[in-house]
């Protein structure tokens, strides 16, 4: 039976991941946003001005798709582009005051949804999950 523990852990991880992703998607949609829009705004909100490449790496969206989402968010006034004076090929993306105001309003609610999902799980167990997933991720 112990021989199947890795397989069982994998299945449980994948099922719980799918369930968590669906719940987070519902939460983000309740703010009238798509997951990709929220992810980009959240990255800029917490990390400040970034290049398209940096955002793409942070939110795991390919650069082709990210340009479309950035265009939409810029049209809504949530972010703006700033061309780099040293390298004309580089473009920085930064959150606007309107985008910051939105994230100040919705991010605490979003964070609470995540906190609620892990209610009843001890800090020690959470630390164990984090460390275990890091090990698996590095091994893969």
Automatic annotation (TrEMBL):
* Identification of the protein by name: MarR family winged helix-turn-helix transcriptional regulator
For whether the record's keyword set contains Phosphoprotein, the answer is: no
Q: Which Pfam family, just one, is annotated for this protein?
A: MarR
The record, for InterPro entries, names: ArsR-like_HTH, HTH_MarR-typ, Tscrpt_reg_MarR-type_CS, WH-like_DNA-bd_sf, WH_DNA-bd_sf
- Cited Gene3D superfamilies: Winged helix-like DNA-binding domain superfamily/Winged helix DNA-binding domain (1.10.10.10)
Q: Where is the HTH marR-type domain?
A: 6-138
Assigned keywords, A-Z: DNA-binding, Transcription, Transcription regulation
């Amino acid at each position: 039976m112990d021989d199947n523990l890795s397989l069982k852990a994998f299945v449980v991880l994948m099922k719980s991941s799918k369930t968590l992703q669906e719940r987070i998607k519902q939460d983000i949609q309740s703010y009238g946003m798509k997951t990709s829009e929220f992810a980009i705004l959240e990255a800029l909100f917490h990390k400040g001005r970034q290049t398209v490449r940096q955002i793409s790496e942070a939110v795991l969206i390919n650069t082709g798709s990210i340009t479309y989402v950035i265009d939409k968010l810029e049209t809504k006034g949530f972010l703006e582009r700033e061309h780099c004076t040293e390298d004309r090929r580089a473009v920085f993306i930064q959150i606007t005051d309107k985008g910051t105001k939105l994230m100040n309003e919705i991010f605490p609610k979003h964070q609470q949804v995540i906190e609620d999902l892990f209610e009843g799980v001890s800090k020690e167990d959470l630390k164990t999950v984090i460390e275990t997933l890091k090990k698996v991720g590095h091994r893969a």
